[in-house]
Amino acid sequence: MKKEVIEKRAFNPKESISRAKVARTSLPMWKLVSEGNEYTWTSKLERVSIIRRGIPYASIDVISKRINLPVKEVLHIFGLPQTTYNKKRREHSLLNGRDSEIILLLTELVDFGVAVFNNEEDKFQRWMKKQNLSLGGNTPEGLLDSITGIQEVKNCLNRIEYGNFA
Q: Among residues 155, 30, 8, which one has the least CA distance to residue 101?
């Protein structure tokens, strides 16, 4: 048998820096547009900054359309009565931190899900409504009412992306 000789290369800081620059420019960028305001973020720290400032109640409508659920069902996720939502939306109020975070996480989830399904939004929407064994027999959209549930759906999409359907 032949033994392959693996040549060790010396660490090259310039090469490392150029790889890091390429990686930095290829970071995912998420965007949410609500009430004429555009919220963009590429990192968790930028997301935290947006959460602390808050996003408008109108963003519930935006995410409702993105995840293909009626506003009434989305309001159930947030535990908001329709009348409160209507009043806060008219007043152009901002969501609290938890609700802002869920909106931003759902935005990231939808973008990731559509990418996993090769930009075929219809396929992603159908997958969201089907029971899934790896989610304990729940539908993905049935788990969107908590941050942990959203993360589990994202983990499931990650497994699909890498070919592990279980």
A: 30
**Alpha helices for 26-70 (secondary structure H):** 44-53, 59-66
The answer, yes or no, to whether residue 19 has pLDDT greater than 90, is no
Spatial neighbors of 117 by CB under 8 A, at least 6 apart, are 123, 124, 127
**Cα separation of 27 and 107, whole Å?**
16
Q: What is the C-alpha separation between 78 and 95, in angstroms, rounded?
A: 10
Q: State the residue for tokens 């060790």.
A: 8
pLDDT of residue 102: 95
pTM for the complete prediction? 0.81
Helix pair angle (71-78, 97-116), 10° resolution: 130
Amino acid at 15: E
